[in-house]
Design brief:
Blueprint: E1 5-7, E2 21-26, H1 33-36, E3 40-43, E4 47-48, E5 55-59, E6 64-65, E7 72-75, E8 87-90, E9 95-100, E10 108-110, H2 133-144, E11 151-155, H3 164-176, E12 181-185, H4 194-202, E13 208-213, H5 219-226, H6 231-244, E14 248-254, H7 263-273, E15 279-283, H8 290-293, H9 295-298, H10 306-318, E16 323-326, E17 350-351, E18 368-369, H11 370-374
Parallel strand pairs: 2-3, 3-5, 4-6, 5-7, 10-11, 11-12, 12-13, 13-14, 14-15, 15-16
Antiparallel strand pairs: 1-9, 2-8, 8-9, 17-18
Length: 385
């Protein structure tokens, strides 16, 4: 698992009074002088360091001749995965955070930790704090992300807590990254407000999808899972409003002890009432955040719900709904699920078990969340031989 944030060894003194900063990294020593002032040079190789860059990040253990020490921040080896065109933030108190990795298709920008749901398995537990600096940081980061980026996500918390400022961010992203496919994770409740759904649609982004969770066809179960009364009703109205305005919507269902039994009924509910959604994603549980705290009431070995998963995929596919099964080890699903199976776990938090070593289908398998492996994932892992 990659270390996405942490402390630097020593922060460059010239940056110490300037507040949090966002940098686009370069490993190109021959970058034209006119461009150097916009980039931070990442010292990954021994030798003489080029001059004229806005800042320098010097990786521990690299024997380099530092030319501008006051502008040089020293990083531990855990950040040796940083590369050309990555975007990072550096704070006054010496914390560094990866915002964007140019060699990955799994980049999501966290916009806030605030949320009006309080889901039992939330991987990013909500906080009641003003963290609007994350939104401002996102505006800056978008300007630094390479234009050829294929896909980018916005996540939270609940990104729509910013209202019209969130819409402005979508506009801004459309302008700076017009060819980038954009995916937003939202609980969908804000879109129950028809005028907000309309504003969202007026961005007219050419490739935008919003992923919205519905956990059960039973409103009481959904509201229990998200710990918010009336959430089911608002979420479904949100989905209807978005589709009324021609927006692309993905329904996301996280599978665990509280949701797996009702999965076939939920598939039927979606097929009958929300047939026009663009995709349904059936997702394995990530053992992090609240999921870890509530693990006893949530955890179930995927092998135990494989038949409900098969049935849900069958129902949704029969109705012609695009269906994807995310975050599941391949050997823990029935073979009739394979057409919907996606090797999906983000590259920075994906691992395989010791039992996987001889498996002939490792390349097709998404493996496990690192957090799941640490907690003892399943007794039923069975390598394909
Ligand atoms: S044994 Fe193979 S299919 Fe099962 S989790 Fe490991 S790599 Fe995936």
């Amino acid at each position: 698992m990659l270390t996405l944030s942490g402390r630097v060894i020593k922060r460059g003194s010239s940056a110490e009074t300037s507040g949090p900063r966002i940098y686009s990294l370069s490993t190109q020593a021959s970058l034209p002088a006119a461009l150097r002032g916009k980039k931070a040079f990442l010292i990954k190789e021994a030798g003489l360091v080029p001059t004229g860059f806005k800042h320098y990040f010097h990786l521990e253990g690299v024997n380099a001749t530092i030319t501008e020490p006051e502008k040089t921040t020293r990083l531990g080896k855990e950040f040796s995965y940083f590369g050309n065109d990555d975007v990072v933030s550096l704070t006054d108190d010496g914390r560094i955070r990866s915002i964007f990795r140019a060699d990955s298709d799994h980049n999501s920008i966290l916009l806030t930790e605030q949320c009006n749901n309080y889901c039992l398995m939330c991987s990013q537990p909500p906080k009641r704090v003003d963290d609007s600096w994350l939104l401002r940081e996102a505006f800056d980061a978008i300007r630094l992300i390479p234009r050829e980026t294929k896909v980018l996500g916005f996540t939270g918390g609940e990104p729509t807590v910013y209202g019209e400022d969130f819409i402005k961010l979508l506009d801004h992203t459309k302008n700076w990254l017009p060819n980038t496919s954009l995916h937003v994770l939202s609980n969908g409740r804000s879109f129950a407000d028809q005028s907000f759904a309309h504003s969202y649609s007026k961005v007219e982004h050419p490739d935008l999808m919003v992923g919205i969770p519905i956990y059960s066809a039973d409103p009481a179960v959904h509201d229990y899972v998200v710990q918010a009364q009336g959430a089911f009703d608002e979420t479904v109205r949100g989905v209807l409003n978005l589709k009324r305005f021609g927006q692309r919507v993905e329904i996301r269902v996280v599978l665990h002890k509280q949701t797996y039994k009702g999965l076939p009924e939920l598939a039927t509910f979606i097929a009958r009432n929300l047939l026009f959604v663009d995709q349904v994603a059936l997702m394995g549980l990530e053992h992090t955040g609240f999921a870890r705290a509530n693990i006893d009431s949530l955890w179930i070995d995927p092998i135990e719900y494989k038949d409900q998963l098969s049935e849900a995929v069958r129902i949704l596919s029969t109705y012609g709904i695009q269906t994807a099964v995310y975050n599941h080890p391949l050997c823990l699903v029935n073979s009739d699920v394979y057409p919907a199976y996606v090797k999906s776990i983000s590259d920075w938090k994906n691992e395989y078990a010791i039992e996987c070593a001889p498996c002939t289908k490792k390349n097709e398998c998404g493996g496990f969340f690192s957090s799941g492996i640490q907690n003892g994932y399943s007794q039923s892992i069975k390598p394909f031989i």
